[in-house]
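User: Before I run my own analysis I want an independent prediction to cross-check against. Here's the chain; please return only the structure tokens and, at the end, one sentence I can use as a sanity check.
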Amino acid sequence: MCGHGAICLMTQLIEQGILKWNGTERIEVELIMPTATAAVEIYRRHDDRPLVMLDVNPPVFRKDNLDFERLAGLLGLGIEDYRQELPLETVTGDFVHLVVPVRSLAAIRRIKPQFEGIIQFCLEHKLDTVAVFCTEVERPGNTLHVRDFCPAVGVPESASAGTTNAALTAYLIRHEIVRENSDGQVVIEAEQGHEISRPSSIRSVVSIDDGSIARLQIGGVATKVMEGRLYLPELSD
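Assistant: Structure tokens:
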């Protein structure tokens, strides 16, 4: 499963007229993959760009015994930069994320990751990413600012990560940092990738039933940055 690929695919299918709005503002698609299927909803935004949302399974939490002072040093932070009233927790979904709440945007901008040390830390504790966030944001209307360090799985820092934001969304709900709206949903707008000059926006929509996550959708809008053509040789008889 690749969220980036699914969003880009659905956007291209609409742009080429293969998927049609037919006078509606929403299209439902069943995405068939080798071992599973995924529900996809595409919404027509006010600017006519498609917002693609994918259903993902709610993640689960686990308790780890971690050296948080060591981790702070690997991030170039002090222990005082953590948001003390919130725990650092491991959240398991398609990947395993260590969620790290920090106090401010200034702190998250000061991060200077020691990638080799972070790789070792992740391998020791069976982590895939270190997801650092704060609730102070650059763009008004957003919910949180995210930096996601993934050197243990081959990406120093991710510019946009659906699985990470699913983990963060579950964390925010678990610790009552966000609340349901009048429709009984939690809507989270995350900003990510700013520090590596690849700003992105990730939208999470959660339906709550009896205090638990009943449905979790993650998505966003794809922006075309390049295009090209493939030329294939003609087949001979």
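Sanity check: The chain has two domains: 3-55, 60-218.
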